[in-house]
Each structure stands twice: as C-alpha cells, then as structure tokens.
Amino acid sequence: MIGRAPRIEWVWSRVWPARPLDPALLTSALTRLAADPSSPTVVLETRADADGITWLLGTPAEHVRWVQRTLRDLLPGITIMAADAASRAPVESAVALQATPGVLGLGQPPLEVTTALLSALGAHLSAGEVMVLQIVLGPRIAGRIARGPVADPAQPIGSLLARGVMPAPEPVQRAITERIALHGFRVSLRIAATASTTERRRRLILGIFGALGRARATGVRLSLTAQRPAAITEPRLPRRWRLNLTPDELTGLLAWPLGEHDLPGIPPLHPRQLLLARTPTPEGRDIGETALPGSGIRVGVNAADALMHQVLLGPTGSGKSNVLLLQIAADIRAGRPLLVIDPKQQLIDDILDHAVGEDRIDDVVIISLADPHVPGFNPLDAGDRDPDVVVDSLLAVFKVVFADGWGPRTEDIFLASLLTLVRAGQAIGTPFTLVDLPRLLTEEPFRLRLIGHVAGDPTLAGFWATYGELSPAAQAAMIAAPLNKLRRYLMRPAVRRMLGQAEPVFRLRDIFRDNKIVLVPLNEGLIGPVTAQLVGSLLVGEAWNATQERASEDRPTDRPGFVVVDECQRFVNLPTSFGDALSQSRSYGVGWILAHQSRAQLPAELRESIDTNARSKMFFRLESSKDASDAAKLTHGHLAAEDFQQLPRHTAYARIVTGGESSGWTMIATLPPPPPTGLADRIRAASRDRYGSNETPVPSPNPTAPRRSSVSSAGTPPSPAVGRKRRQKKSERTSEAEQAEGGQE
C-alpha cells in the first residue's frame, strides 16, 4: 500500500461467543467473510485486564449492521452489544507480527493455539494493566489454482543466485498448493500492553508472542516490529500487510473460547453464560442484572407481563425468597394488592422489615395463627356468591388435606354439611363457620333449625331425612371419620380463633377491591405442617374466588394484583384445573408468583399447568439431577443439566416475558434486598389494632334469631380473644345461652 491509509470511523461492539464453540463453525464464518470481496475491513480484539478477558469487534460505521447480522447468522448464540469507551483503554507499547516466508502460513491446530493464547492473556494482571491481541482483517485474497511447480520457500539466496528457482519438496508443494486454493485475508496482527514499567510491558508482550509461537508451522520464522500505540487505540490500515492468512489459520489466533472444555483465563463452560435475546422493561420491578461479565442489563418483569405468571424453582438458600421480596416491594410501592403465603415466616419478616413504606401501613393485614389476636377468616361467608362454588372450593381443600381415609361417604357428609351451613347463613343473613359443622352433625335441635332453611333442595332434604332416621349410635358411626379429621384442627385454639369468626373485620374476598396487602406467615414450627396446609389451602382457595369476582370489574388488568405462594404444591388445591385458573386469572388482572424447591414435589397436573401457563421462569441452582435434567429440557437445548447444577448462590437462569414475548434464557445475578425501613413493629401493631380479634367468644347464635357472633361453639370449650364483639359478663352470656336453648326447644 502506497501513501497514508484513509482514516476509518470505527464502531466498537463487545462480543460474547456462544459456548461451546465448534472451531469448524468459526472457520466457516471467517470463510464467508473471506469469500466476499465486498465485505468490509474488520478488527477483532481480545483484551485482558484485572477483571478478565473480553472480546471486541471493530467495524466501519457504515457496515455495522451487515457485519453483526452476518456473524449472528453464522454463529448461532453469539451476543454482540455496543461497547463503552472504558472497554478500550489506550495502550502504551505495541508491536506487529510478521511471518516469513509468508507462503507457508501458520498451520497448527486452532485449539492448541487458542489454549496457549488464553493462558498468556490470563496472566495475573494488576489494576491498570492491559494486554491486547488485535487482528485487522484487510483485503480479501481469492483462492486460486497453482500453475506449474511451486518454488521452494526455504531456498537460500546463494542457491537461488547460483542455480535459479528450485521447486519445493513434494510435501511442501502440496501444502502450499492447498493453502493458496483457499480464500483468505491480508492481515495485520498486533500485540500491545499497558503497565507501570517498560520492562513489565515487554514481558507481557513477549508472553503473547510466545503463545503465538504455537501457531508457527515448520520452516516459518516469526518476528516483531515496533508499532505506534495509537495504531492500536485508533486502528489505521497498514502501509504493508505483513500476513496472508486463511480462515482456518485465523480460527485459533482470535483467542475465542473454542471447544467443549474449560479454558484458562475465562469462566468455565458451565454454568453457561447466556444473554437476553430481548431486553426487558422492568418498570420498577427489577430482580437482577445479567451475569455475563460486562453486560450489566437490568432484568425484571413489569406488572403487565407479570400477569402471565411466574415460577421460581430452587432449594432452600438458593435465593428465591430474595427475588420474591424484590417484586413484592415493588408492587407495594406501586400501591398494588397482594396476598403472600409463606410456609415459614422469614419472607414475611423481610417484607415487614424492608418492603412496606409509611403510605401503606394501614393496608397491611397480617394473618398469623401464632398471634392471639389473629384476624378472622370465614370460608363459609358466601355473601352473594353461589353457595355451590364456595363449597366446591372447600371440598377441594378437604379432599387433599384429609386424603387419608377420604371416601364417598366422607365426601357426602362434608358436602351436605357445608352446603347446609352456607345456605342457611345466606338465608338468615349471618354466616356460620367451620366451627359450627360438628354441632350441625351432633346437636339435633341446632340441626333442625338449620335444615329448615334448605328444605327446598330435595337432595339436601333427603340426606338430612335419612340421617335423622338413624339411631344415635348409627349417626355417631357414620360421622366419626369426618369429625375426627376436622376436630384434629378445630381443637387447636389458634385455628378456632381464626376460623371461628363469623363476620371478621376484614374479608379476604375484598383484597383486590380494597388494595390490601395480606401477609400469611404459616410458621410450621409453631402450628405444625398439617395445620399450615389446611389454612394455606383455604386462603389460596379464597384468593381464587376473589380473583373470579374481578370479572365484574371494568378493565381489571389496569389495576393488577398478585398472589405469591411459596411451597405452592402444598397450598394450591382448587376445585378446577390450575391451568384454567391461571389462564382466567390473567384476564381478571391477577398474576400468580409460585415458588417451590423441587419438581418432584409437584403432582403431574400441577406441574404441567405451571410449565404451560407460568410464562416467566427462574431456576436457581438445582441439586437434583432429575430437576436439572427437566429444567434443561424446558430450555430446548440452550442449556444443559450441568449448567443448572453449577449455578452460584443468588444466581439464576431466567426466561422473562417482556412485551408479551419471551426474552430468551439468560443468567442473572439477583439484586440485594431493599434497605430496612425500621417500620416492622409499627406495621404489626397497626394490623393487630385495625384487623385483629379482641373479644371473648359467645355461644353460637340461634338460627331462628340471627345475631352477629364471632365464634360458634363446636362442642369444645371456646377459645379466648376472638371477634370484635363487646365483652359480656358471665350472667349475660348464660342468659343468652338459655334463651337460645329455649328457642330451639
């Protein structure tokens, strides 16, 4: 080249080659560029500093889109993003490589060359030190057929002068003939370094030069020529191209991570570091950042996309709860309604410590069975709802929780009893409670007053007529199994306190209408796992009923709410397919965020429903090989089981819905929790004062003379401190009881 080369306006991009990277695939991509004489000059850089190794692509401004599109087409999975200025710090020393004789090329296996280069680039570098391997792909060289004998490139000058041109030995002729038949590039290969001393820079440069020696073919001599450092920082085309290289020779010289094995100086192959195909728009619901070094893209699910539901999978301690906390905090800040069911208590404590601000203290309802002033929950309070729908929800829960010994007779008794209590409650205007169910089956006067309200239903009337004809002993034998199951829970004072409140201050069905934040810590250490399952399942069933009631709202999706259920397999027991429930919930403006520890915990139907309908997925480190294998299958080949098994803590693979479309799988590092607010004690006190029970229970009301009552007798001593009724003296309570009994007679 004669004269000064024109200045090129370079656009720099950062490149993350997909791994594992087949050398043949990279060679094919380079061949595509070499075969097109109109393709532009391209700069490929590998840089190393104290933070690690990065790959950069320099393209003339007018050719950026073409080059990037071509590489993405030819190298599936490659990620290319704009590079910031800091990624190309200036260098202080630079050299250019020359190989002679050039006709022999650099013919060693690319994997060996790559390993040597990455090992050199992976040398320990101090802050501020930089190593650069820059390759400028210049004019293309078209492949051609050799005509006549090939001159011996190793012939000494004396021999040339004395004997003329001598043909090369047969093996050399064959190698040269094959090489010049390939498309190739005129190349400038430069090495540069930045360090505190000249000697240190020299050692760093010689380290890379030594690694390049692995590429040297027999008979080839490599040498270095000093370059201006500015030629690296702002690449200029050289006056003379010192190398002619083929695509297969370049494959190893790029120092890209070739092959299926771990390489020095770069992160291991597993867990595979993927970047998003579509950038999400979290809109305040950020959960993490892309873990690919240098990418730093915020990742999250905005409220509209979160209505397509989300599932989090990972064992205890993997980081699920922190991701739940981040989203819950964002929804609380945005004024959205929430139900959070936590089988332990840590998540609820974290929400109270970190997520609730001053403006939403009055919206928080804490339903804790460990609290003597627990807010009430009456699943038999149908209001204006269809009693059959309410009872179906309860039966679905009972069928799971009371699975041992559940049969047609038990289901028949529960169905008739629950329908009677719900319909009678609607008829007299005051709901009954689950605490009344044993009394319905064991106290004839009480039962006769109630079944009068359902006499119009021939099926129910027939059941109670048959039941009434039985002897007391036969009745006792018939109801022994269902009552034993129910009493197991109702004998617990904490359960009676909550389920025995006929008309509590707060109704869970109003959660979305009133924008409430309902927090349910089911601390199994205090109430037992079986009781936690019953209460949690009842609450989830009521949340589903509340979701369906949003069908009457105008544009419910404009005011989204969320149901967060940890250990979802224990509490999702609905009367309908959960897949159908998730599908309908979206149109009603309710998103479900579900978490669990292992896919083996999920029944097949529930697992299929979640896989299909929870569009956003986050999988943390999976210890189970079966879980890891199943998760890999869900990625359709993008990830392997080893990737899920080797994730660090607080790191996850995520596929996020953004704009209604999938972002593609990416690895994210989750964000830290929000800072503490210092409001936890105030929130607990406010919830207790506003929604908690605070009175002495009274006997169940006379069905013919309904009156408000917090707790109904269940044939067991009433528990203290329930409901919101005025405290009564013992004489007043005795008088009321006598009047009720007199009315029943």
Automatic annotation (TrEMBL):
InterPro entries reported in the protein's UniProt record: P-loop_NTPase, T4SS_component, TraG-D_C
Q: Where is this region: Disordered?
A: 688-745
Lineage summary: Bacteria, Bacillati, Actinomycetota, Actinomycetes, Mycobacteriales
Q: Where is the composition biased (Polar residues)?
A: 707-716
* Stretches assigned to the TraD/TraG TraM recognition site domain: 563-634
> Which SUPFAM superfamilies does the protein's record reference?
P-loop containing nucleoside triphosphate hydrolases
Q: Which PANTHER family would you find in this protein's record?
A: SLR6007 PROTEIN, UNCHARACTERIZED PROTEIN YJGR-RELATED
Name of the protein in question: TraM recognition domain-containing protein
Pfam families documented for this protein:
TraG-D_C
